[in-house]
Amino acid sequence: MSRGQGQWDHQQWAEHLREVRSALKKRDAIDRNLEGAATYGSAEEALRERSAWAARAKAHLRRMAVLAEAAPDPDNARGVVGRLDRWRARSR
Predict the structure, then answer these.
(1) DSSP letter at 1?
(2) pTM of structure
(3) Shortest CA distance to 57 belongs to which of 89, 15, 88, 12?
(4) How far apart are CA 47 and CA 52, in angstroms?
(5) Using one digit for the tens of pLDDT, what is the confidence trace for 36-64?
(6) Cβ distance 48 to 30 under 8 Å?
């Protein structure tokens, strides 16, 4: 983040939001075996890839949680982080 830690940065927020949603969609696609069956040679490979996408989502959610505290509407921002975290927690 180019600004000090904890300062509101809308561009960073939007970037992390896109990254979280993208990672969770890819993780869910692997879960549904839409991409997994055609792309991966083994179940172990699919699980490793799924785990990597889940970890990526978690890392971006952590940054969003920090940014949320400095948001113009922190309650709303925390709510967004909470909803995304519940999505992340599903189907582990």
Answers:
(1) -
(2) 0.81
(3) 88
(4) 9
(5) 455 666 778 888 888 999 999 999 999 99
(6) no
